[in-house]
């Protein structure tokens, strides 16, 4: 037996020396991970260098060898080690050796594959193209041997080619080893893992020291190894930073920025120490730019953690908005320039100052903050628990038991409408309402939602026209010198509270400029008029800063819109500074002599007459209007509003308030406002509980003016939730208003062809229009159907609803054929009507001719003869079908072997099949059209208006 020594050092790994081939030692220790190395000329354990000794492997191998009669000596030295830098350099050197070795193997495999292929080609040159094996001829044996040699060499060529690809991949992996290891981003992720391992070993070492375990030394060595490796990689990262490589971290971002992650820009919701919380909405992915609004649902932002090592760029929020306004998506270079112009630390400081100025919202501890509803499936009772800010039952509000009405059972979640209606009633009775967010929780746990007190409605100023306005004393100075001080909720006595007088001349607009209002809303952040009035804001409206009230018009109001020629000149300029308050204060109009006050109706008639007289002068002003004084436009182009979309918008407005003003016109006769643009926002504001809205008020505008109509249509056309029939009706209204097709396209941003195509849909009958509006009939098919008469449209819809067509293409071909038949019959002086059901015709189907009553006898004989010839040709296609079926089920490898040696190879035959496929596609189209024509003529009824009814004898009629 042999004397075997098992040694382990951290520099050389675990080696087994003293064994010779055939002594049986390898078979004994193989199960413990030992392998033979020709370079070391001994057995060793793989991946044992620079690591602790694996005692269970070493001791297990030693026990097995001793039982076989070998003398085994174990030597373990954990102190002899090499530095991590030396080990890494050795690994890189061995990777270079592997790359060179694998490259040689790949070259040899390629050379072998080429040689095999050349041999097969040389043998195949002896045969003429398509020459079969001559059975019984003296050349049969040689031909079969050559075919076998060709097959063998081709197979070997393929195998060698695959082997060459394998070694080429291994070569590329070895060549990229160093680049992969020193990549800064991967190194940062590696450092995170190593630091976590170091903290784990430090805790284990402290625990072992405290309890006196023998593993203290092992933990100390591991701590030394990890510390040295971390220092090595940190030095590499610092070198990469010095070379200009950007390493992203939390100091480089601020909330509201955009981060380039996985090839797209995502809005940053939070900046964390290790990751960014970015906007995430899988329904919109992939999207080039995903903002926080895109990921907001019911007031909650969905986020996804993005590791800093996977972030590729930063763009400030304002810069991104500017890029998107120009219709661009920034690249890395443009984003880097924008990031340098607006660093993250400056943005964070501005955000911190804004947060410091914003008073913290304090809640009353006596008021519950949330409710929890618990109910089992098919139960008749549910429990409502009032929760405090810590999600614990509120002490001042005991739980409430909700009983279902007779014959009604509750469900287990938020789908029980009867349960939630009673919950809403309880909240209303307690003066509470639902807060931001949605229901959370689930079956078995109960559902929870935030609640808040119902905001108190602000008192509305009393109408001025109920009593006469008193005259100011003669000795008092003019009202223009002293600004009027008005209490909250009280209207001034020198001006009507319903509608303030016109503002500065800068806000005036002419009728020809109205079309520009919808395309240029007030930029958020540039106007000092508040764009968001939150329903929970209890500050009196007249005391809120930067908000126009109905009492006075101050110089804080900036010019909302400019005339069209001035827009280009003022583009890019900052808003002008506010003028002194004295200059902006309106002068009180001179009062006439006191007269007897007229009745309310009489005064309204006078106001209406004045409004009509000055309608030509259009002026605009932005202000906050109570929502109950706003009416929808009865001529609104949109008739259908998606309730789910409205609830989403209402949740956003409940959380953030109104972000964009609506456009309304003021009716002096009714003293109310009518929406021009923004009905969807108005509806959502009502659902969100807002009491007033910021609106751009146009005065002096007629209700049925062309510009107002164009604005309403242009604002709605092109929205995803606007039905095609609504668009068609809106375009038709513009046409009736005097617009041409080209002008309609220019106003709405559509091509004239698109406008005309939509307006053609109005030729559809009412059932067809309803089918299009509900999405039951596609637009293309509906347009073709609109070319038919109304009766034929109804009959076609009946066939389409019964599923008489295999596809929309078949239905489209049928409609085209019906239209052609209508035109043909009209040219002959008769009418064409589709039959409700195609009657079965007696006799042989082959002998029947659709519409044969108008075919001459000679033409009929020719058709029957040509039909026989055509059907015989079509019957021959069965042979081609068998061939194609055989090719479809054949083995691809077998096809490659059979067709590789013929002229043109596999590609030539593939080209022939593709040519047949193109011909087959054309044939299918022709047959589909033919089937449509045959179906139309077979189910047609011809009515000749010139035909005279037969005369019925009088005696027969009397009988």
Number of helices in the DSSP assignment: 29
Q: Uncertain segments of ≥5 residues (pLDDT<50)?
A: 462-604, 610-616, 837-853, 946-959
Strand content: 5-15%
Distance between the termini: 134 Å
For the sheet with most strands, the description reads:
6 strands, mixed
Which bin fits the share of residues in helices?
Answer: 40-55%
**Backbone CA Rg:** 43 Å
Question: What's the total number of strands?
Answer: 26
**From the helix content, strand content and strand pairing, which structural class follows?**
alpha+beta
Mean pLDDT: 76
Shape: flat
Structural description of this entry:
The chain has 959 residues and is α+β, with helices and mostly antiparallel strands. It is 43% helix and 13% strand. The chain is built from 29 helices and 26 strands. Strands 6, 7, 8, 9, 12 and 13 form a 6-stranded mixed sheet that branches. Strands 14, 15, 16, 17, 18 and 19 form a 6-stranded antiparallel sheet that branches. It is flat. The relative contact order is 0.04.
